[in-house]
Amino acid sequence: MKKVYLSVFVLSALFFNGCSDDFLEVDQTETISTADLALFNNDEGAKSFVTSIYSKFLDWNMSSFSWNGMSSIASDDADKGSSPGDTGTDKDLMDALTYNASSLSVQEVFEAYYQGINRCNQALYYIPQLNNADQDLRARLIGEAKFLRAFMYFTLVKSYGGVPIVDHIPNPSSEADRVMQLTRKTKAEVYAFIEQDLNDAIAALPDRSSYAPSERSRASVGAARALLAKVSLYQQKWQEVINNCDAVTGYSLATDYASQYRVSGEFDSESIFEISGIGSSPAKGIQGYSASQGARGAGGWGWGFNTPSESLANAYEAGDTRREATIIFAGATLYDGRYVPITVENPRYNMKAYSSAFTDGWETDVNIKHLRYAEVILMKAEALNELGQTSTAIPLVNQIRNRAGLANTTATSQADVRLAIWKERRLELAFEHDRFFDLVRTGQAEAAFAADGKTFVVGRHEVFPLPQKFINEANGLSAQNPNY
């Protein structure tokens, strides 16, 4: 049994071994023997392969400090925060856009997502062999694994541009597999791979209503459709965005925006895909996600990183209920009665990372909302507007604004509605790991960063650098991103 545990979980560190100088040198020779695989040849055993993929999202290097550095601190929505002298290793560099190929954040996220991809590949290899497990269950689990692999590759291609496509467990004695792991594909090739995985997932996954309450965090066909719409959005495939948004059914906006980020709002009517945190021993939450972003200093409870910027705070209109649902202000009393004294070090903190029951816990009950129905509405509005159907897009924008307590938009022209949609995306999805990538894909980055006092270098900062350790190991098989 020990051998099985090591094979499925520990050996998922596909791209990094801390004891080795080689970026890809890991012990991949151990596999599950026929006898050991028999222990997994049942429904629960089959599920365990995919559960291990979801579990990767709870790891520090996958969803926490470094990912916040790339997706949030590097944007105009957030500052490094914390104390002036505490850099968080490289979070000051992420904030100033002066990171490089050796920066910890860009290396950790790259490693984490390939570790997750290896877990997906393990599931896709072993589950078809489990002939004693229910056939329909196995088909669904394969769909989940493909959805999760697509999600991971989408994060990678947004972050780094073209990356290696590792579509199976590499054989360490295979030269072809070594080259596969070290050779980056084009963005177009990665997007095509993502789309294939998502189309496979759509064919295999059920509606979320078919899941038992204990399995509500698992991917559904709605999640696959919503992610495919987002993948199409990033490629400006406007009609495909609309088609996939229209296929996302059975969801609705939560009545109260703020409720979505509390325990009572987990997996609510608006939630399409979110990472579940539990927060009570021995069950796990997302490592350090709340603690690293909690209020710092006298009367605080955390490290104080990833603090909302003044730019974000000022972007909300008067009466926008999303402001207090997103930002903790020093001197405020929170929804649970907790007072945040003015003695804390930073004036603002991330409310969406706040846990009421496990405030200073390393693993709290905070979930990460990755796909919400509000974003589906905004994606459809953006696509309609880009296709010249502005009058049809405007009511969708108003749905989002009205839920936030705001009046209908005054924008009427295609150009003005475009700006209105971009603004609503910023305010609606703040601290949900989209802002940096939205600025890049919409061409707003240079101006937005300049307004926030940062220098976005066109031709460089559209993507993060590939980790230098990977470039060294590739030894000419992959080239670094421009100007790094």
Please give a structural write-up.
- This protein is mainly alpha-helical and 484 residues long.
- Helix content is 45%, strand content 5%.
- The chain has 20 helices and six strands.
- It has helices at 2-8, 34-39, 43-56, 60-63, 65-73, 91-96, 104-126, 135-160, 175-182, 187-204, 221-234, 238-246, 310-315, 322-326, 373-386, 390-403, 414-428, 435-441, 445-451, 468-474; strands at 78-81, 271-275, 305-308, 327-329, 348-350, 368-372.
- A two-stranded antiparallel sheet has the order 1-3. Strands 2-6 form a two-stranded antiparallel ribbon.
- Helix 12 runs antiparallel to helix 15 (373-386).
- The longest helix is centred in the first third of the chain and has 26 residues, at 135-160.
- It is globular, with a radius of gyration of 22 Å.
- The chain starts with a helix and ends in a 10-residue tail after the last helix.
- The relative contact order is 0.13.
- The model is unreliable at 1-30 (pLDDT under 50).
What characterizes the major β-sheet? Answer: 2 strands, antiparallel
**Spatial ordering of strands, largest sheet:** 1-3
What is the residue-mean pLDDT, rounded to a whole number? 93
> How many DSSP E strands?
6
Write the layout of secondary structure elements.
Blueprint: H1 2-8, H2 34-39, H3 43-56, H4 60-63, H5 65-73, E1 78-81, H6 91-96, H7 104-126, H8 135-160, H9 175-182, H10 187-204, H11 221-234, H12 238-246, E2 271-275, E3 305-308, H13 310-315, H14 322-326, E4 327-329, E5 348-350, E6 368-372, H15 373-386, H16 390-403, H17 414-428, H18 435-441, H19 445-451, H20 468-474
Antiparallel strand pairs: 1-3, 2-6, 4-5
